[in-house]
UniProtKB/TrEMBL annotation:
This is XRE family transcriptional regulator. It comes from the Bacteria. It comes from Kineococcus xinjiangensis. GO terms for molecular function: DNA binding. InterPro entries: Lambda_DNA-bd_dom_sf (IPR010982), TPR-like_helical_dom_sf (IPR011990).
């Protein structure tokens, strides 16, 4: 039977059930997060039932209380539309196509429309990270990074020079991320160091913070969990109130979860949640270096899976897949969705559903856009669960062979 309720109403039910709460329990949780007295218990329980039924949308005040009670952020539960077409913006703002931008870069002077077109081009590339094939994005990113580097030898004003350095810093971050996705750790670290240098020259705390976040990410996939915590805290000290601080808190939470410290995991997640809740809603949800609200569910999913909280991890995995898929089935966030499927595979193993676990595991390996270090890291959790309970099954051995082939094919540099 289909569920015609709004997605947010379905999620209220799923999140409550995952915690084993009654409707009375969840209302008590609302009270614990409320800064002022709320109406009577019977009244709020009736109201909650109407919310779960999708009959009424909660007010902004109650939306934030519900998000806090469920350990997420308001715009993850009640999303706002936000999408920009970078290519269209280039044309609309400057009237230039890519070829004309390149031709203008070879001129002796850099005018304002060309610089604006460059900014939007960098923004477009960062917004294509989630779905553009890695090799293609890497090639384009390196080409534009070289063009920006060549600009430094031209006649630039002080403000133009600063903007070029800023743009080069963002592109270096993007190129480094894709290099890491493709398993090229040596190039990744060199590019990350370049981003650090550019961020320092431009005095750009955001670029510096993301460069340290990349270090934390790399440490996480290599099993250096103390290194994650050090990198995350270093980046947070540099950019404590910026969007990157949310992701740094998430990386720290993931590390604590793998260390096995539930309390520190929750502390880090809650710090990130509060930071994100206090920030403006992003204009461009597709930009890789913007922490969109739905990404917080992805962070929490990883932590709860690692801690063995299967019900919560499964509920969040379904939400990650739903939020990352368009109405026509197109996957806007294939890398997040792949990890969500691995999560569902892990919970399926734990519930005794071997066929379901293997189906999720195989599906996670088929995406054309992958982050190999992250995919292999979370897949090892599914591998461990399969070996513990179903190692002698022929289907298990086939899946383990597929995963082994993927790991062997990844560059080891």
């Amino acid at each position: 039977m289909s569920d015609d309720r709004p997605a947010w109403a379905q999620r209220l039910t799923a999140e409550r059930n995952a915690r084993g709460w009654s409707q009375s329990d969840v209302v008590k949780a609302l009270r614990a997060h409320a800064p002022k007295p709320l109406p009577s218990q019977p009244h709020l329980v009736r109201q909650w039932k109407r919310w779960e039924a999708g009959e009424h949308t909660p007010s902004a005040y109650y939306q934030s209380l519900i998000a806090a009670a469920l350990g997420t952020v308001t715009r993850a539960l009640f999303p706002e539309p936000g999408h920009r077409d970078g290519a269209a913006e280039v044309s609309a703002v400057s009237g230039m196509e890519t070829l004309e931008i390149i031709q203008r870069l070879h001129s002796s002077d850099l005018d304002a429309p060309t610089l604006e077109a460059l900014r939007i081009t960098v923004d477009r590339l960062c917004s294509e990270y989630a779905y553009l094939p890695g090799e293609q994005l890497l090639s384009e990113g390196r080409e534009w990074l070289q063009r920006l580097a060549n600009l430094r030898s031209q006649r630039l004003t002080l403000s133009q020079h600063r903007e070029v350095i800023n743009l080069a810093g963002w592109l270096a971050l993007l190129v480094g991320c894709v290099e890491n996705d493709l398993g090229d750790r040596r190039s990744f670290e060199a590019t990350r160091q370049a981003a650090l240098s550019l961020g320092s020259e431009a005095e750009n705390a955001d670029v510096l913070g993301w460069a340290h976040e990349m270090r934390a990410w790399s440490c996480l996939t290599r099993g250096d969990y103390r290194g994650v915590i050090v990198a995350a805290r270093t980046g947070t000290d540099i950019a404590p109130h910026r969007s990157v601080a949310v992701q740094l808190a998430a990386q720290e939470a993931k590390a604590w979860a793998r260390i096995g410290d539930r309390r520190q995991t929750e502390v880090a997640l809650d710090r990130g949640r509060k930071l994100l809740e206090g920030q403006d809603h992003p204009d461009n949800l597709d930009h890789h270096f913007v922490v969109d609200p739905s990404k917080f569910d992805f962070y929490a999913m990883d932590c709860y899976r690692t801690l063995g909280e299967d019900a919560l991890a499964e509920a969040l995995a379904h939400e990650v897949i739903r939020a990352g898929t368009d109405f026509d089935g197109t996957e806007r966030s294939p890398m997040r969705i792949a990890e969500a499927r691995i999560t569902l595979g892990v919970t399926a193993v734990h519930s005794g559903d071997l066929d379901g676990a293997l189906a999720y595991g195989r599906q996670a390996l088929t995406s054309q856009r992958q982050s190999l270090p992250s995919l292999l890291m979370v897949s090892r959790e599914l591998t461990s669960a399969l070996r513990e309970q179903h190692e002698n099954e022929a289907a298990t051995q086939i899946y383990l062979g597929q995963l082994h082939d993927l790991a062997v094919a990844a560059p080891q540099a």
